[in-house]
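User: Can you recover a sequence for this backbone? Please restate the input before giving your answer.

Assistant: Of course. Working from this structure:
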C-alpha cells in the first residue's frame, strides 16, 4: 500500500514532467518560424549643438539631435510564443580615439500584433552624446533599426530590420538651436 503522500508525489512528478515537455516543445517550435521583417529608415536631419553638462556646469559638451522617418512591419514576428518585441534605433560610429560606439537613440516596446506596424516621423528619444564630449574627428555614423523578440518560453532572438544606405557625417557644432 502507498500512503497519500507517495500518491501525491507520483501525480505531481508526472504533471511537472508533462509541463516541462510541453514547454520544451513550444520553445523548439519557435525555431520553425523564420520571419525576416524589413523596413525603411531615412535620417532627415542631424544637428549638433554646444551645451553645458548636467553634472559639471562649467564643462562644455556637444549634443546631437536626430530626426528620422521610420517604417517597418513586425507582424511576421508574432506567433503563439511571442510575448513582446523590443524595437530600437541605434547609431554606430567610431570615436576620435578609435573606439567603436553604439548608441540607442529611440526605442519602443511592442506588446500586440496590432501595434507591430510602425510608421513614424520623429525626433530622437534619447540625445546623442559622445564620452569625449565632442563629435569632432568622429567617423560618420551608420544608423540601423534592430529588434529583440522576447518569447514566453525559449531563447531571445535578435535581428535587424533596416539600415541606412550610407554613413551620415556629423556636422560642425552650432551655438544656438534654430
Amino acid at each position: 500500500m502507498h500512503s497519500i503522500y507517495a500518491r501525491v508525489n507520483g501525480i505531481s512528478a508526472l504533471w511537472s514532467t508533462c509541463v516541462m515537455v510541453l514547454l520544451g516543445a513550444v520553445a523548439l517550435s519557435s525555431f520553425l518560424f523564420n520571419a525576416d521583417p524589413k523596413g525603411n529608415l531615412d535620417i532627415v536631419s542631424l544637428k549638433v549643438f554646444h551645451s553645458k553638462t548636467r553634472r559639471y556646469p562649467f564643462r562644455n559638451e556637444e549634443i546631437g539631435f536626430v530626426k528620422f522617418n521610420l517604417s517597418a512591419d513586425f507582424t511576421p514576428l508574432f506567433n503563439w510564443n511571442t510575448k513582446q518585441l523590443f524595437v530600437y534605433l541605434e547609431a554606430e560610429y567610431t570615436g576620435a580615439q578609435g573606439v567603436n560606439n553604439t548608441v540607442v537613440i529611440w526605442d519602443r516596446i511592442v506588446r500586440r500584433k496590432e501595434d507591430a506596424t510602425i510608421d513614424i516621423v520623429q525626433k530622437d528619444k534619447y540625445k546623442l552624446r559622445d564620452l569625449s564630449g565632442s563629435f569632432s574627428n568622429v567617423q560618420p555614423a551608420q544608423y540601423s533599426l534592430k529588434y529583440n523578440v522576447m518569447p514566453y518560453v525559449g531563447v531571445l532572438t535578435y535581428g535587424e530590420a533596416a539600415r541606412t544606405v550610407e554613413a551620415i557625417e556629423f556636422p560642425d557644432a552650432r551655438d544656438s538651436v534654430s
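That completes the design. The first strand starts at residue 39 and ends at 52.
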